[in-house]
Amino acid sequence: MVMSATTDGGQRTLRRDGSFGYVAPGLLLIVFFFVVPVLMLLMRSVLEPAPGLQNYVELLGSTTYLRVFMNTFIVAGLVTVVSVLIGYPVAWLLAIMPDRWSRLVLAIIILSMWTNLLARTYAWMVLLQRTGVINKTLLSLGIIDKPLSLVNNLVGVTIGMTYIMLPFVILPLIGVLKSIDPAILRAAALCGANKRQCFARVLLPLSLPGLAAGALMVFVMSLGYYVTPALLGGTSNMMLAELVAQFVQSLVNWGMGGAAALVLLIVTLVLYAIQLKFFNPNRAR
Amino acid sequence: MTEPFLSIRSIRKTYGQVTAVKNVTMDVAEGEFMTFLGPSGSGKSTTLYILAGFQDPTDGDILLKGQSLLSTPSHKRNIGMVFQRYTLFPHLSVGENVAFPLRIRRASQVEIAERVKKALKLVRLEGFEERKPALMSGGQQQRVALARALIYNPPVLLMDEPLSALDKKLREEIQFEIRRIHQETGVTILYVTHDQEEALRLSDRIAVFSEGEIDQIGTGQELYANPATHFVAGFIGDSNFINAEVLSNEGGQARLSLSGGTVIDGVPVHAGKSGGKSVLLLLRPERLSLSTRPLDSGLVVTINDITFLGNNIEVTTHTGNGESLSVRLPFGHEAISSISRGDKAWLSFEPKSTHAFA
Fold it and tell me: What is the mean pLDDT of chain B?
């Protein structure tokens, strides 16, 4: 688990005698190029085309847009669930492997994170298309008799995004799982718990903070994801970020774009607040 | 002959080239408190882990009431265990920790509540049900672990250095508790420790482990009075060893020549690895007597230091050829007032009470 670097219980005191000056350039940069543009976009959502909340009324009132919201949550939820299902066993394996091996596997996982996102997404497009390696292999093995549609739909988006999100589940989980003393699991076994009970009653509850942190991070990141859904998804399952892009780029409707962006931001902040409240690693259990 | 309650038969465990346990055989009676005593790496913990089912022996068998345990996985052995490290489930309260084995066994709510209460009473932690383990001291946590290990009435309780993380005073307090609980429950206990004092205080019998083998099994008194090997003699109680030469040996009673020409007769000799003439003679510090007057059969030594230790006085000395010997004299011993550093003195002892190891 990521721990805060402070040793004073998180109560950092900012010295005001001049040291503030050193962070000013960075702060100004953030304010001018990040905070102000975001605020401007959000302002436009209530000012364009005329002052008022009509953009929000339209956004939340229309079934088309609601379907985009629903779809965003479905994709983010699906990606989170699949990432956890795949990531947990991998993290467990990495936690109990000899260090030499786990470092190697970890390096491979992190290396994939450093590879360009677009390149990885295009690679999945090539792999998943009707004449791609996966379909060809399955066809030649006789497992299927016509190509599966694995791309430009929910399946494609889920596969592509899960691949990208996996490290964000695995990394926090490894830390938590490594901190669990194997003797505790031995004690559980002698108490009569079989492997399934050891997992459900001891390992899972003890790793829940790491699991929740990873899952929530994946969910929140997935909510605002753009590139992968745009390339691997179909038109029928558009996500919120794509909607924002469409408003701004194709329709030049900054008001609606800003409104959609604000809704996304609020949902994200609410989830982040939930995480802080229930799974704050800096607070005593 | 009646079946032994727990029988460990020729257990051997190797990891590749390394042999952790060479050949361990012992029978344990029902209700007995048996301690595995030995330095780290002597195979005592490995033997315990094999009993728990965490490791399989390379060879040998373990029988509980005549039934082999080896094919039974850990979670079905019904054996209790308290570990060296704190192994309470941190996400569960004390009450839930103790209830855990019963929940796994699907006991009824009423039965669980009743037995948890009884188990916590046994370890004198009544009313701690709601407490989280992290808020308890190390000693309390180990007592909860003990309650959790005993709640399902296991036939055998394994304890793997459960007190090694505690400070001395607390350790003694919990040793007393463990003795009381052993007497109250009558459970058979196999206890691993490297602390001879702990072993002597707790056990009915002690098995001394050395390099993967048992050197000797016996009560503390037997091990102290009649050590079978040089290792046991050195591990139990305080000991001096000096070199001696065997002049003659008849039926395990030897005539020995010590440095300085002193000859003693009737010393029990234990056969060892080297069958030669030279032996190591065990002299317990408290069995030595010191005199300032020359003695015919005494050992001439020079006084190095005199240390007052309260109820007794430790005198460190060395012999003519530089072997150091410590002597423990009772407070007020007549020789004390008349000796000082650098003085010559004569040590005497009863040859029958010593042991020589080849």
Answer: 90
**Minimal Cα–Cα distance from B354 to chain A, Å?**
44
The pair of three-digit structure tokens given for residue A168, joined into one six-digit string: 């964000």
The answer to whether B156 touches B64, Cβ cutoff 8 Å, is yes
pLDDT one-digit tens code per residue, B69-107: 999 999 999 999 999 989 999 999 999 999 999 999 999
d(CA A228, CA A79): 12
What digits encode the pLDDT tens for the residues A159-218? 999 999 999 999 989 989 999 999 999 999 999 999 999 999 999 999 988 898 899 889
Q: Show which of residues 206-235 on chain A sit within 8 Å of chain B, judged by CB atoms.
A: 206
Q: How many CA atoms lie within 13 A of B173 on its CB side?
A: 12
Cis upstream peptide for A147 (omega within 30°): no
Cα-Cα-Cα-Cα dihedral sign, residues B21, B26, B32, B38: negative
The domains of chain A, with CATH numbers, are: 51-279 (1.10.3720.10)
| Full-model pTM | 0.80
- Label residues A128-152 b or e (16+ Cβ within 10 Å = b): bbeebebbeeeeeeeeeeeeeebbb
Distance CA B290, CA B54 (A): 53
Query: B146 with B174: CB under 8 angstroms?
Result: no
Closest by CA to B97, choosing from B61, B142, B32, B33, is: B142
**Minimum-distance CB partner of A186 among B54, B73, B134:** B54
Domain B6-230 bears CATH identifier 3.40.50.300 = yes
Q: Show the tokens assigned to B201.
A: 């205080």
Secondary structure E strands in chain B: 6-15, 18-28, 33-37, 59-64, 67-68, 80-82, 156-160, 188-193, 205-210, 213-218, 240-250, 253-258, 263-270, 278-283, 289-291, 299-308, 312-319, 324-330, 344-348, 355-357
Chain A residues whose CB is inside 8 A of the B76 CB are 192
In CATH terms, the superfamily for domain B238-357 is: Nucleic acid-binding proteins (2.40.50.140)
Which of A193, A205, A206 lies at the smallest CB-CB distance from B75?
A193
Reported ipTM: the value is 0.81
Residue that wins the pLDDT comparison between B296 and B23: B23
